[in-house]
Design goal:
The chain is 50% helix and 19% strand. With 450 residues, the protein is of the alpha+beta class.
Length: 450
């Protein structure tokens, strides 16, 4: 038996719907445990429930404002030092177990601040002690298990510290190697570190030197030759962005900035729970009204479109979990707005379908023409909204555009919602109508003009 194209697409839709339902369901519903599959796809472990990331306004947590002491930093280096501090503190709180935390910089005159949002944090005292430390950079020699090669990362057992520290490093800069055009990181040592670095490189030619930041190995370059002038080049970066990231980390130790807690605010989870409950209630009421309108106005077509909307919500929630989208109240607003955009697409198609029927075409032809001729309007409307979403999301971090995490959360869920709605509207709903909708052809009697 040969399956038609709509039947094949329907099987595909059923498969991804079942997989999405499995990923979305919690591990336990009331007293019933949902069976889990002992199966892995890459880094995706299907045997465990995937957590839906929640924002500070929903999950609760800690909001901290830090002030950076820039007295010992030259004015031309302060922006670099602040960015390095931001990266270093971000890594610290990630190690602390606070995922998807938000960190923003704020500069006003000679006032340099970092604003941190730490959702779901359970030990604020320990977190404050951790993020309030000044970055500590050390140069060390890695120790490997005897009989193993230094290239085998699994054999690394310890580090032996040297007398060279971040206080001896002047700065690190991402640039390109003039001989081959490859991205590299240039490092320059102060007078206090030139002799130390020269001795270190002379005694360890062909061996690795580890650069530790807060006891974490940032990079472990291999010494090629003795370097007596305190100017070295770290190669191995795959892109200029990777070189810039390494330079920022090194500058966090070369330009250590003391920080102190200016203010902290605990946001209770009960506030988020109340807000999310009201948002879900509003969403359910709104979606129910949309479904009733679609069924009441378009009958069987409206019911099939409503099924498409349910699948749209299922696919959206699945992507939120798979890609760790951080869901906040503005993000929920973006999702609900994209639901409205999905309904608009269905209405454009159905109204166009009515016009084709009134023109005397049979319902299968009218259905295909409706989707084809409504596509231009759907595409233009959604493209305009996606462009607006990208401007709000500001992926390039332009200073003259928005940098607010809440607005970005709204933009991200809106963009994802629109892209998924295009898939469910053009592929899912269209295929369901082809298989399960049987329309009527309106007979139009043409009167001959006298």
């Amino acid at each position: 038996m040969t399956l038609s194209k709509p039947q094949k697409v329907f099987i595909f839709i059923c498969a991804i719907s079942l997989l999405s339902l499995y990923l979305v369901l919690p591990a336990k519903i009331f007293n019933f445990s949902v069976p889990r599959l002992n199966f892995k796809i890459g880094s995706l472990d299907l045997s465990q429930e995937i957590e839906l990331k929640q924002g500070l306004d929903i999950k609760g947590g800690l909001q901290v404002t830090l002030t950076a002491d820039m007295q010992e930093i030259k004015s031309e280096d302060r922006i670099t030092a602040l960015e390095s501090l931001k990266t270093n503190i971000g890594r610290r709180i990630d190690f602390f177990g606070v995922s998807e935390s938000g960190i923003k910089t704020a500069i006003s005159g000679n006032d340099y601040r970092l604003i941190l949002e730490l959702p779901g944090i359970s030990n604020p005292e320990q977190a404050l002690a951790l993020i309030g430390q000044t970055a500590k950079m050390e140069f060390a020699l890695p120790v490997y298990i005897e009989g193993k090669t230094a290239t085998d990362a699994a054999t690394l057992s310890d580090f032996v510290l040297t007398d060279l520290t971040g206080a001896d490093l002047a700065r690190a800069t991402a640039t390109f190697d003039s001989s081959n055009g490859q991205p590299v990181v240039d490092i320059v040592f102060k007078d206090s570190g030139k002799a130390k670095f020269a001795k270190l490189t002379k005694e360890n030619i062909g061996k690795q030197i580890a650069i530790l930041l807060d006891d974490y190995p940032v990079t472990m370059p291999t010494v090629q030759v003795e370097i007596p002038d305190g100017r070295a080049q770290i190669t191995g970066s795959n892109s200029i962005d990777e070189a810039k990231a390494l330079a920022v980390q090194l500058n966090a130790g070369a330009l250590p900035v003391p920080v102190s807690v200016l203010s902290q605010k605990n946001i209770p989870a009960t506030l988020g729970a109340d807000s999310i409950e009201k948002s879900i209630t509003a969403g359910v009421i709104g979606l129910s009204m949309v479904v009733l309108f679609m069924i009441g106005n378009y009958g069987w077509m409206g019911l099939i479109a409503s099924i498409g909307l349910v699948l749209y919500g299922l696919f959206t929630l699945t992507l939120y979990k798979l890609f760790s989208v951080f869901l906040s109240l503005p993000g929920i607003a973006g999702f609900l707005l994209s639901v409205g955009m999905a309904v608009d697409s269905n209405i454009l198609v159905f109204e166009r379908y009515k016009e084709e029927i009134r023109a005397g075409r049979t319902w299968p032809v009218a259905l295909e023409l409706a989707f084809g001729r409504a596509w231009d309007s759907i595409k233009d409307a959604n493209t305009a909204t996606i462009i607006t979403g990208f401007i709000l999301f500001n992926p390039l971090n332009w200073n003259f555009l928005n940098t607010s995490g809440a607005v970005r959360g709204f933009a991200l869920t809106l963009i994802l919602g629109i892209l998924i709605s295009l898939f469910t509207g053009i592929v899912v709903t269209r295929n369901l109508l082809r298989l399960f909708y049987k329309g009527k052809t309106l007979e139009i009697k043409k009167q001959k003009s006298k």
